[in-house]
Amino acid sequence: MTKKHAVLSASSSNRWLHCPPSVRLSESFENKSSEFAKQGTDAHELCEFKLHQLLGDAGIDPTPNLAYYDEEMEVCATAYATYVMEELNKAKQVSKDPIVIVEQQLDFSRFVPEGFGTGDCLIIADETLSVIDYKHGLGVLVDAYENPQMMCYALGALELFDGIYDISQVKMTIFQPRRENVSTYTIQKEELMQWGNDVLTPAAKLAFNGEGEFQCGKWCGFCPAKYSCKARAEYNLELVKKEFREANLLSDDEIEEVLVKVDNLVSWANDIKEYALKQALNGKIWADFKLVEGRATRKYSNDNDVAAAVIKAGFNPYDKKLLGVTAMTKELGKSKFEEILGDYIIKPKGKLTLVPMSDKRKAVEIQTAADEFKNMEDK
Fold first, then answer.
1. Per CATH, is 13-208 categorized as 1.10.8?
2. CA-based nearest residue to 73, from 119, 106, 36, 40
3. CB within 8 A of 85, min separation 6: which ones?
4. pTM exceeds 0.70, yes or no
């Protein structure tokens, strides 16, 4: 059975909150499900089964019918179910009868026209309502802090359970095991309701009616109209058209002005190239561009035949190499990996990168050669 999708879905709320008219603009574009989305759907189905197992509920193992099932998905789903049970045990310490609800349909249409969605897991207890969302994605790190999708789900959960339990706050958690990310944000119920009334509802009404102003940002990357959106093109071309002051070198202020927009500009340019290529592959003839074959890399026609031929000739076709951390974890299993190699694992510092001040990570202080020399003088 095909699932019904809301016009103003919780999953796309970050986009339509920032850019309300994008919703109606996108309706003429086919929003195909990607391979990553299909993999995520399989992972959610397995997570649901694993959690029901730990809760003592009967269920049918879905793994034979999961197209993207693998050992990593098994580990991730088990970790998710275990985490939920740990949170349930915490809830039992402050509430005598908390309940867990899996894959709950949530209606937040009081705030968003026709608004509904499905919460992966709810733990309902006195004082705290917990909303837990599983993310199988590896590409984008998802933060729970003021996450509008989670806040929409939380509003829907309050609609169902606020009168049954004495709830004073909502705890929202993103569980993203492939990024080793467990992000939690807690908000008071009154503050969440105020956000729903003052921020969510006005933007939702504009979006539903196709009104409001276009606004470009990171959310454009998930918009079905991102390839052809004129507002996005104009926004990014502003940087290209900009006339910098007459000088041979850019000033620091001008460089920062470029840095603010350059990521969106690069993303937009790549989207345009991807769109143009797809159109060409579907038969479109561009006036000044043509399809050609790219650079090809030599490859073996059959690995087994190549290995047999090399061995027959008296040579060794294989190169022994220590398995990497991910591959070794898969080979040994997570618990065995920790038991055998836990003391040998280190986590080097990540490569330094330049990000906006709004980024939540702590700034790294760089000590220059001049600073080191000054420190030596002070000693």
1. no
2. 40
3. 51, 54, 55
4. yes
